[in-house]
Specification:
The complex is a heterodimer.
Chain A lengths: L4 H21 L4 H26 L5 E9 L2 E7 L1 H24 L8 H20 L3 H19 L6 H28 L7 H6 L4 H19 L8 H7 L2 H26 L5 H23 L4 H28 L3 H36 L10 H4 L1 H14 L6 H14 L7 H33 L16 H19 L1 H16 L3 H5 L19 H22 L4 E4 L17 H11 L4 E6 L11 E6 H24 L4 H19 L1
Antiparallel strand pairs in A: 1-2, 4-5
Helix pairs in contact in A: 1-2, 1-4, 2-3, 2-4, 3-4, 3-10, 3-13, 3-18, 4-5, 4-10, 5-6, 5-10, 6-8, 6-9, 8-10, 9-10, 9-12, 10-12, 10-13, 11-12, 11-17, 12-13, 12-17, 13-15, 13-16, 13-18, 13-19, 15-17, 15-18, 16-17, 16-18
Chain B lengths: L6 H32 L9 H11 L2 E4 L4 H20 L15 H21 L3 H32 L4 H10 L6 H17 L18 H4 L5 H26 L10 H28 L8 H22 L2
Helix pairs in contact in B: 1-9, 1-10, 2-9, 3-4, 3-9, 4-5, 5-6, 5-7, 5-11, 6-9, 7-9, 7-11
Classes of the chains: A mainly alpha, B mainly alpha.
Chain lengths: ~675, ~325
Amino acid sequence: MSVTPLAAALAIAAAWLAIAAIGVCAPHALRFVAKVLYPLGALAGLALAATALVAISQPPDETVLPLGLPDLPFHFRIDALSAFFLLILGSVTAGVSVFAAGYLRPGEGTLPGVQCLWYHLFLASMALVLLANDAYAFMVTWETMAVSSFFLVTSDHRIAEIRRAGYLYLLIAHVGAIAILMCFGVLHGFGDYTFASIRQVELTPFWATVAFLLALFGFGAKAGIVPLHVWLPEAHPAAPSPVSALMSAVMLKTAIYGMLRVTFDLLHTQIWWWGVLALAIGLLTALFGVVFSAVQSDMKRLLAWSSIENIGFIVVGFGLGVTFAAYKMYGLAALALTAMLYHCLNHAYFKSLLFLATGAVLHATKERGLGKLGGLIHRMPWVAWLALVGALAIAGMPPLNGFVSEWLLLQAFLFTPNLPDSYLNMLVPVAAAAIALAAALSAYVMVKFYGVVFLGQPREEKLAQAHDAGILERIGLVWLAAGCVAFGVLPVQVITLLDFVTGPMLGTNLSKATGATHWLFLAPISAERASYSPALVLVGLAVLTGLAWLAVRRFYHGRVRRAPPWDCGYPLLNARMQDTAEGFGQPVRQVFEPFFRMTRELPSAFDAAPRYRVTVEDHLWYWCYLPVARLVDRLTGFVTLLQRGRISVYLLYSFGTLLVLLFLVR
Amino acid sequence: MLSEFSWAGASAQLTEILLAVLLAPLLLGWVNQCRAWLQNKSGPGVLRPYLMLRKLMAKDAVVAHGASPLFRTAPYIVFGCMVLAVAIVPTLGTDLPYAPAADAIALVGILALARVFISLAAMDIGTAFGTLGARREMMIGFLAEPALLIVLFTASLISQSTSLATTVETLSHRELAIYPSLAFAGVAFTMVSLAENARIPVDNPATHLELTMIHEAMVLEYSGRHLALIEWAASLKLFVYSCVGIALFFPFGIAQGGDAAGLLLALPTLAFKLAIGGFLLAVIETLSAKMRIFRAPEFLGTAFMLAVLALLLHALLET
């Protein structure tokens, strides 16, 4: 009997659960946990990726497991959409877990075994979220994911700031979860909660809209769309780096998966303004994220804000896809959704690569403030050169992967003039301009990140002792960097996979909609219209660069003389006089001033101990969150009126309730 | 278009690339000479950039202590990017076998790649000037790049293609109707080109006053053959921008298809257009003063708005 992909995927989730259970049995055995359990988890990830690759081209398969409550068994199903996200989960986990095997150190945060428990529980719950086929199983696994990641975020729970970050994360995760629960409540009509029967329900446009908005809110809270993003720059940096990598790379994508599942699978029709709303939110998120990441001076916070930006890109693609689908332009919807799914894959790779690189830097230097790093390319060449691949990819540089999805998204934007609504026709190209701005800013951010951390001179004495990453860490980084290059150079092959995903959602896919494909050229619409061949760009670049080098050597010489850098005649230059991260963010602070809530502290000319300080905060925190918090605080004040703290009063309440009930049932 | 590969096309393409690489410094020399004439100076002669390149190539490269391999590879990568950009842009003819590899959006990407590398290399030594230059260059970049993309978008919406060769073919075949969108796009493109090529009013290529430099501050640590390559790449960049401008706004005379006679005829046309363009650039540089660095966002913001306006005009009037 052959094993079906669904059975294999469930078995892998079970294997992760088993690893979690073994880990907690040996909480102190660091070597065992790190060198046996994490690599096993990575192997399971590889197996999951292979399973997903098989499953993506096969028809959907479903099963019922006798787990859960007596009348509510868990339903599971694997189709192309879930298989694609399982592929992301599995393949990224393979890299991250191998890195984590080399990353774990004694005496950091929670015990290694307990960490292993939460880590693998987190992985298993993400896999099961993607496999769930009824609302009950979905919510249970969704909550498991939230709780396990909460414990991972708060590994260093002795630090008050991290406890606060974890609390904020848990709070917003649950506000989102309530919205998702209500969304399923609206969707199921009066049938049961399996997705199969939800698909049968015909909702009126009003209720469909309610369901969509709830889904956008609920999943948006998990994905970190503006204005529900405040937890993300707190929680992602607080977690240990492999966990930050997984949260940014995969957990945010499960929220995107949820949006797609509800909008294109469980709901039957789309309304055009849903897409426009998502588009607007996505644009705001992308701009907000990138502008804030440009002014950060903590490397992990910078990356977390950059995740918000990338989620913005993805939501923009989603919104565009919804709008096109609502107007029955399925070929263009396939283009937009392909761009968006491609970006999900890309972001998973380059963001986890960069988070892991910051982890390696953190271990080598014990520093995460950009202002105390610098010059690490000499001390940590492996990490530095691999991080360069990630930084260039995230900045959207050809021929790496970030550029492909950006290119596809811009191509989708170029088709919006075909929309039947003339107002939209005019507004949407402006959105393309905003996307172009965000993309250009992300290059700025990455130059800042990479330049300040890895280039220049070491800003602190102790950086001279920094050591490069170990062999396991290198393997993890190389795996992810190889993904960034491969998906960048072979877009046609990736899109062949994505066609299986967009096909069932829209009834057509990119290759079918455009007719021909060519193995070397990416030409999503037609070759006359647009084509891009990253492989040829890479070859051209390599050949031209090589030729330039050879020609210079052949006709001239390769002599090099070393000298101190030019100091303008001022001999007392030191490493602290380099530009700081704050300095590098200054143009963005100035150009985008309305985005920030800034407080400056400047000393007067006569200060004996002058202090320069600038803090940059988020307006939305003050405009949206604090008023809500105050309101809740006031409301709970009324509750304390009831809560007197004396047992006689509580007995009186019970007695009163009893009387009322007796009166009612009389 | 994708499968048609001909040796004639390939040799024409190679000739065009070689011509561009060899003639790009001449364009720079011409602009400098015109500028000198406009300022009542006799000028260094149009061949000055070649002599400069030869001198720099022959000298030893002085590399600062603490420079990483990135610093030494960046000039070659930047040069490679610029030559690659030349290969995509139709200069003499539109029959470019390599052009399908990258369209207008990819061209912007390749130029951005060069910018990122030179900025990273500038940060590599760790002096204040390098980082200052890098930060300013990246600022100009993030302001100019969206405007450039929108200009290219406007042209591609008119021609229904982002491939530069197809755009040129469509635009040069249109009836002599006036496209108001292209007029706005043209102004925006001019402003972007000034900024991207480090010309007055955004940057001054002749300055060595440290506080006002952008491009020069970045390449302060380079010398010898590295500096030669960077200077050469800068002249190629000017050439690429000029050719993109010609292709989008004055495409008449670019050979369609790959016949040799058309290409031969296109060469003097291109030289004429470049000479006029270079002269106009010198006029702009002579008539305007360099602005403060934080005026640049306003300048490029205007370019961005003009480009968006062009796009809207196209959506409103021309569809």
